[in-house]
TrEMBL record:
This is Alpha-galactosidase. Belongs to the glycosyl hydrolase. InterPro entries: Aldolase_TIM, Alpga-gal_N_sf, Alpha-glycosidase_related, GH, Glyco_hydro_27/36_CS, Glyco_hydro_36, Glyco_hydro_36_C, Glyco_hydro_36_N. Keywords: Glycosidase, Hydrolase. PANTHER family: ALPHA-GALACTOSIDASE C-RELATED, GLYCOSIDASE FAMILY 31. It comes from Streptomyces clavifer. One of its GO terms (molecular function) is alpha-galactosidase activity.
Length: 710
C-alpha cells in the first residue's frame, strides 16, 4: 500500500490534486474564480486529472442554470438553483457571493498531516472564505471545513455556512445509506434509491439526536458488503446539523452539510470569523465493509483521544438500584461485580443532593449526606480495594426546577421571558452558551474529579432543547446553538487536560449524541438505552457502519428486559454484548450462583478476545436483514488470529444450514479453534467456509476464536 500523501498543483491546468494512499481528490479554480470539483475516486496522476478537467461539458439548457453539483461550495448567487452551501446576507440586505481568488497554499500543521487552503473573497464585499482540505498519510479520509471572516466594518449574517459540498461522478443510479430511529431504537440502517430532488437529513434538537445521525453513504445501487464503490461523509458536530443529498435531472448527485438547522443564522460582527466543523469524506472500493473498516481505522487512529487503549469491562448500577442508592448497597454490588472480573465500577444516578426520583436534585452535585455520610470516599476506597476503577454518572447540562441550583439561578436555563418553560423528563437545559454557566459547570466537575479521584464519567444529556432563547445575549438565539457546543467541547477538553487519566463516556438518553465531534474528546458512547439483545443486533449493525466497536458500549442486563419484557438466555445476551465494549448492568444480587459462575466465564472469554473486537478489522459476514443467522468477524491486522460472533434469534425447522466464509485470513496458514482444538486451513475457511455448529432452537449463539498455528 502506498502511504505517502501528496498535494500537488499544476499551473498549466490550475488543478490541485490530493492523493491519499488509495484515492485521489482533484479541484481547480475555473475562469470565473470559483472552486470547482474535478474528481473524487481512485488514484490519479496529474495528467489523468488534467484529462478529466478538460473533458467537454454536456451543454445545459438555458432553462436549467446550475444545480451546484460539481462546485466545491455552492453559493447563493447567479444562476444557481440547488441547495446552497454558503448563503450570506450583507448589511445592505443583499444576498449573493461571487468568488475572487486570493492566496492558495499547502500547509503542514504536524508530521504526517497535509492541508490545502484555498482562499477567496467576495468580489463586492469584504468577506473572506477559506476552503480547507486536510489529509493524513495513513488514511484515505479527507477532512474538510470552511472559515468565513467578516473583514468589513458592518455586520453580516450567514444564513447557511456548510463545511463542505461533495460531488459524485455520473453513475447509472444512486443509492443512499443512512440511519434513523428514536429513543431506544437508534441507528436503524436504511438503504434506498436516492430520490430526484433534495433529501434532507437533520436534527433541530440541539444535539446529534436519536432520530438521525450525521453521516451518509452513496453508491450506484449495486454495491454489496464485499464489492463495489462507496462515497461517504460524516460530520464532526454535536449540535443541530443538516445534510442535504441532491440528485439532479441531468444524472448527477452530491452532498452538502454542516452545523445548524433551518431558521438559524450565524451573525458575524466586523472582524469575527466563523469556523465550521469538519465534514469528512471517504471514497473506498471493496463494498460497504471496506468503507466501514476505513472509517474505523481513521476514528481509532485520528479521532479518539486514546483509540489504542483497550477498554475495561465495566459494571453500571442503574438497572440494579434505580434511584435507591446508598453506600452499603453499592459496596455489596461492587463485591459481586468484582467476582465477575469487572474492572470498572460505575455508580449511576441517585448519589447526589435531593435526588430520589427524576423530579428533583439535578444541579446539586454533592453526595447526599444521608446516603453517603462520609461522602463518596469510602465507596471509592472499597471499589479500588476490590481491584476496580471507579466511575460516576453525571448530567452536567441539566437542572431540575426542584433544585437548589435552579432556585438560585432560574435565569441560567434556556428560556424566553414571558413564555412557558417546557419540562421534559422533569428537567430544563442549562444555557452552556453563557460563559458563567460554562465556568460553573467546569468548576464543579473539576472539583468532583479532583476530590474523589474519579477515573470515569458517564456524561449524560437526557433531553432536547426547547425555548432556546438567550435573553441576555445580543442576537442570542442565533449565537446560542453553536456557542453551546463550543463551550461543551471546551469544558471536556479542559477537564481532560487537567485530569489526563480521566476517561469519559458520552450518553444522551442512550444514542442521542454520537458523532465525530464528541468522539474527538470522549472514549466511548452509550449506544442505546435499549439493552434487549435481539433489538441490539440491529442497533449495533447500524452503529457499526461508521463507528468502531472500540466506542460502542454494550450491556448485559436482566430478563425480562425492562423495556421489551423479552426473555433471552444469559449466553445470548453476553454474546451480543461482546461485539462491543462488554459491560454488565443487571441486579447482581438477584443472580444465582450458576449465573454468577457463567457470567464470570463469559467475562474471561471476552478478555481473551477483546483486543480483536476493539482493535481488529470488522467483517460483516451476514447481516440482520432477512438473515436467519447474523455473523460478525474481527480479524487481526497481521492475519494471526480472528474471532466470530454468531446469533440466531429464531430457528425455522428445515432451514438450510450453510458454512460461513471468513475473511482477512492468510490462505496459506492453518488456524486452530481455541475451544475445540480443531485445525483449519485458511484457504478452506475463506473459500469454503466454517460450520458454526449452532445448536437447534431459538436464541442460539456462539463465539469462535481462531489462532494461526503455521
Amino acid at each position: 500500500m502506498r502511504t505517502t500523501t501528496v498535494i500537488s498543483y499544476d499551473p498549466d491546468t490550475g488543478i490541485w490534486l490530493i492523493r491519499t494512499p488509495r484515492t485521489s481528490y482533484a479541484v481547480r479554480v475555473d475562469g470565473t474564480g470559483a472552486p470547482c470539483h474535478v474528481a473524487w475516486g481512485p488514484r490519479l496522476t496529474p495528467a489523468q486529472a488534467a484529462e478529466l478537467a478538460t473533458a467537454p461539458a454536456v451543454p445545459a439548457s438555458s432553462f436549467e442554470g446550475t444545480s451546484g453539483v460539481g462546485e466545491e461550495l455552492p453559493v447563493d448567487g447567479g444562476a444557481r438553483y440547488g441547495p446552497p452551501s454558503l448563503q450570506v446576507r450583507f448589511a445592505d440586505g443583499s444576498r449573493a457571493f461571487e468568488w475572487q481568488p486570493e492566496e492558495h497554499r499547502v500547509h503542514r500543521p504536524e508530521p504526517g498531516v497535509h492541508e490545502l487552503r484555498l482562499a477567496f473573497r467576495d468580489r463586492l464585499h469584504p468577506l473572506r472564505t477559506v476552503l480547507h482540505y486536510r489529509v493524513r498519510e495513513d488514511s484515505d479520509v479527507i477532512e474538510r471545513h470552511v472559515t468565513v471572516r467578516n473583514d468589513g466594518d458592518r455586520p453580516v449574517r450567514l444564513l447557511r455556512a456548510d463545511s463542505a459540498a461533495w460531488s459524485l461522478p455520473a453513475l447509472p443510479g444512486y443509492r443512499l445509506s443512512h440511519v434513523t430511529g428514536q429513543w431506544s431504537a437508534e441507528s436503524l440502517l436504511h438503504r434506498q434509491p436516492l430520490p430526484h430532488g433534495e433529501t434532507v437529513l437533520t436534527s433541530r434538537r440541539g444535539t446529534t439526536s436519536h432520530h438521525a445521525n450525521p453521516w451518509v453513504m452513496l453508491d450506484d445501487g449495486g454495491t454489496t458488503e464485499h464489492q463495489g464503490r462507496v462515497w461517504s461523509a460524516a460530520l464532526a458536530w454535536s449540535g443541530t446539523w443538516r445534510i442535504t443529498a441532491q440528485r439532479t435531472p441531468d444524472g448527477r448527485a452530491g452532498l452538502t452539510g454542516g452545523a445548524g438547522h433551518d431558521g438559524t443564522v450565524v451573525p458575524l460582527r466586523p472582524g469575527e470569523e466563523f469556523v465550521s466543523p469538519v465534514f469528512a469524506g471517504l471514497f473506498s472500493e471493496g463494498g460497504f465493509g471496506a468503507a466501514t473498516r476505513a472509517w474505523h481505522d481513521h476514528i481509532r487512529s485520528h479521532v479518539l483521544p486514546h483509540g489504542d487503549e483497550t477498554a475495561p469491562v465495566l459494571y453500571n448500577s442503574w438497572e440494579a438500584t434505580g434511584f435507591d442508592v446508598d453506600e452499603a448497597g453499592q459496596m455489596a454490588l461492587a463485591a459481586r461485580a468484582a467476582r465477575l472480573g469487572v474492572e470498572l465500577y460505575v455508580l449511576d444516578d441517585g448519589w447526589f443532593g435531593g435526588r430520589r426520583s427524576d423530579r428533583a436534585g439535578l444541579g446539586d452535585w454533592t453526595p447526599s449526606p444521608d446516603r453517603f455520610p462520609g461522602g463518596l470516599g469510602p465507596l471509592v476506597t472499597e471499589v479500588r480495594r476490590l481491584g476496580m476503577r471507579f466511575g460516576l454518572w453525571v448530567e452536567p447540562e441539566m437542572v431540575n426546577p426542584d433544585s437548589d441550583l435552579y432556585r438560585a439561578h432560574p435565569d441560567w436555563v434556556l428560556h424566553v421571558p414571558g413564555r412557558s418553560r417546557t419540562e421534559l423528563r422533569n428537567q430544563l437545559v442549562l444555557n452552556l452558551a453563557r460563559a458563567d454557566v460554562a465556568e460553573f459547570t467546569y468548576d464543579w466537575l473539576d472539583r468532583l474529579v479532583t476530590e474523589h479521584g474519579i477515573d470515569f464519567l458517564k456524561w449524560d444529556m437526557n433531553r432536547a432543547f426547547s425555548e432556546a432563547g438567550w435573553p441576555d445575549g445580543t442576537e442570542g438565539h442565533d449565537r446560542l446553538w453553536a456557542r453551546y457546543v463550543h463551550h461543551l467541547y471546551s469544558i471536556i477538553d479542559r477537564l481532560r487536560a487537567r485530569h489526563p487519566g480521566l476517561r469519559i463516556e458520552s450518553c444522551s438518553g442512550g444514542g442521542g449524541r454520537i458523532d465525530l465531534g464528541i468522539l474527538a474528546r470522549t472514549d466511548q458512547v452509550w449506544t442505546s438505552d435499549n439493552t434487549d439483545a435481539m433489538d441490539r443486533i440491529s442497533i449495533q449493525h447500524g452503529f457499526g457502519q461508521i463507528y468502531p466497536a472500540r466506542t460502542m458500549g454494550a450491556w448485559v442486563t436482566d430478563v425480562p428486559n425492562q423495556l421489551t419484557h423479552r426473555h433471552v438466555p444469559l449466553r445470548f445476551r453476553f454474546h451480543v454484548a461482546m461485539a462491543g465494549l462488554l459491560a454488565i448492568g443487571g441486579d447482581l444480587h438477584a443472580w444465582s450462583e450458576e449465573e454468577m459462575t457463567g457470567a464470570a466465564a463469559f467475562v474471561a472469554e471476552y478478555k481473551a478476545v477483546r483486543h480483536l473486537v476493539q482493535h481488529g478489522a470488522l467483517h460483516r459476514l451476514s447481516g440482520p436483514e432477512g438473515e436467519e443467522t447474523t455473523v460478525v468477524q474481527y480479524a487481526a491486522a497481521d492475519a494471526g488470529e480472528t474471532m466470530l460472533l454468531a446469533w440466531r434469534c429464531t430457528h425455522r425447522h428445515g432451514a438450510p444450514v450453510r458454512p460461513v466464509r471468513l475473511r482477512g485470513l492468510d490462505p496459506g496458514a492453518r488456524y486452530r479453534d481455541t475451544r475445540t482444538g480443531a485445525v483449519h486451513h485458511g484457504a478452506v475457511l475463506e473459500d469454503y467456509g466454517l460450520a458454526l455448529g449452532l445448536p437447534p432452537g431459538d436464541w442460539a449463539s456462539t463465539l469462535v476464536h481462531l489462532t494461526r498455528v503455521g
